[in-house]
Structures are given as structure tokens and as C-alpha cells.
């Protein structure tokens, strides 16, 4: 991937990236990564984060994995309210034991479209507080060449793009087999006496219909199994149990905020 030439025009808005710039040895020669024990503050408002299909299984242990929009983009749901991430603390700490999506791990690097030359180029978020001239791990060495750290980050972005395309193919397969349906995540609150109240819809999203899946002909099921898609479908379906955990986390955080308000 190109890292040194300025782009004619970078297109697209990318979640978390406030000031993306093409990585350039002249402009960014003195930039370095700032080491932080809790570096995830940039994702505090990431309610839902894009996932690659190969991440479904590990992500399913932590989050509901859903599909959104006309493109049926796979997302890891990390909060119930817009601008809320229940797995990241205000100090930038990530919930212990929770899977960290690759979309978050690649930050502050990203691939972006260079419209003038119809290609993808490596960019960094110049607005990130993880990059500074006084940082610990340089992006370029004394000869102006990308350091091992930068090379690894570029490879990570390249691999991420490969997985993104694989994910597009997986989603198209689900579309071709007409497996999507609109689903709802429902929460039933308890009153002061411990009795269930009126069920409340907390989210609407697209997911795989088990009924449609089970109705597929045997040869179609075999195709899904052989391609590995069936395992990813079941990881998605199992992940939906995670709505209960998400609701419990949201309730706990709300109770903590009320308690802190009372103390103040």
C-alpha cells in the first residue's frame, strides 16, 4: 500500500476518525505512537462497530452480532443508546475479557479511497491523541522508511480489507438465499414487587431467520456448511443471547450514575 504520496481526494466518512490524512514520510516524519495503558477513549461513542465475518465467533461471546441497513452490514452492538459504549470506561479502559473488534484495534490507521487514482491508501487519524511528536514508537525511522510498527499496522489494514471483502461475499450469500428477517430485542422490566411489566422493544435489526434457514434444501445447507458460512450463521444466532447481557450492563450503569449523582 502507498504511504508517501499525497492523495488527490480522500472519500468517505469513517467511524472514530476525525482528521484522516494520507500517511506521508515528509509530513509525519516525527510522529510516534503514544503508549497508553487504557487507549480506547476514541471509541467511547461507538454504539455499534463493524465486524468481519471471521470475527463472529469470538465477538459472539461478548456482543449481539447483527446486520444493519440496506447493505446488511455486520455490527457488534456495544451499547443500547446512541453515543454509548458499555464496554469502554471513561478513562479509556476496555471491559476485561471482552473481545476487541479489529475495527477498533486498527485505529489510528485506516485505508481510505483516493478518488484521483482509484485506489486505497494508508491514512492515519491526525486528530488522535495516540499520535504525537513526543510519542514512544516512531512511525518512520531516520532514513524516512516506515518502522516495523508502521509496517505491521499497514499489513493489519491490508488484512482487514481482505476480510471486509470476504464479509461482503458472505452477506451477499445470505441475501441470495433470502435468509434475512427483521428482528426485535425486547426487555421486560420488573416492578418494585418483582412482577414483570410491559415488554419494551430496545432495538430493531436484521438477522438470519432460523425458519428460512431450516427450510433450505439439503444441497443449499451443504453449500453453506462447505463454505464455512453455516458456522458463522450459528455464531450470529448464538450471539443474540447477548442482548440480555447488554440490557443488564445498561441497567447497572444507569444505577451507578444515579448513585453517583446522589453522592454528589
TrEMBL record:
Pfam families: SapC (PF07277). This is SapC protein. It comes from Caulobacter rhizosphaerae.
Amino acid at each position: 500500500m502507498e504511504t508517501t504520496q499525497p492523495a488527490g481526494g480522500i472519500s468517505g466518512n469513517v467511524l472514530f476518525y476525525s482528521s484522516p490524512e494520507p500517511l506521508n514520510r515528509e509530513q509525519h516524519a516525527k510522529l510516534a505512537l503514544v503508549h497508553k495503558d487504557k487507549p480506547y477513549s476514541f471509541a467511547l461513542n461507538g454504539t455499534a462497530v463493524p465486524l468481519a465475518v471471521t470475527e463472529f465467533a469470538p465477538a459472539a461471546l461478548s456482543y449481539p452480532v447483527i446486520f444493519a441497513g440496506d447493505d446488511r452490514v455486520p455490527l457488534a452492538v456495544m451499547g443500547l443508546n446512541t453515543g454509548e459504549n458499555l464496554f469502554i470506561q471513561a478513562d479509556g479502559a476496555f471491559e476485561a475479557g471482552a473481545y476487541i473488534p479489529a475495527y477498533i484495534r486498527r485505529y489510528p490507521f485506516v485505508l481510505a479511497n483516493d478518488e484521483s487514482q482509484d485506489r486505497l491508501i494508508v491514512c492515519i487519524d491526525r486528530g488522535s491523541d495516540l499520535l504525537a511528536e513526543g510519542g514512544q514508537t516512531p512511525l518512520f525511522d531516520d532514513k524516512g522508511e516506515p518502522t516495523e510498527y508502521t509496517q505491521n499496522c499497514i499489513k493489519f489494514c491490508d488484512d482487514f480489507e481482505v476480510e471486509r471483502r470476504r464479509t461482503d461475499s458472505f452477506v451477499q450469500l445470505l441475501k441470495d438465499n433470502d435468509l434475512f428477517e427483521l428482528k426485535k430485542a425486547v426487555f421486560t422490566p420488573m416492578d418494585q414487587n418483582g412482577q414483570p411489566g410491559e415488554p419494551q422493544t430496545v432495538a430493531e435489526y436484521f438477522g438470519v431467520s432460523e425458519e428460512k434457514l431450516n427450510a433450505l434444501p439439503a444441497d443449499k445447507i451443504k453449500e453453506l456448511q462447505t463454505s464455512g458460512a453455516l458456522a458463522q450463521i450459528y455464531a450470529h444466532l448464538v450471539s443474540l443471547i447477548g442482548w440480555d447481557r447488554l440490557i443488564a450492563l445498561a441497567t447497572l450503569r444507569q444505577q451507578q450514575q444515579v448513585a453517583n449523582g446522589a453522592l454528589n
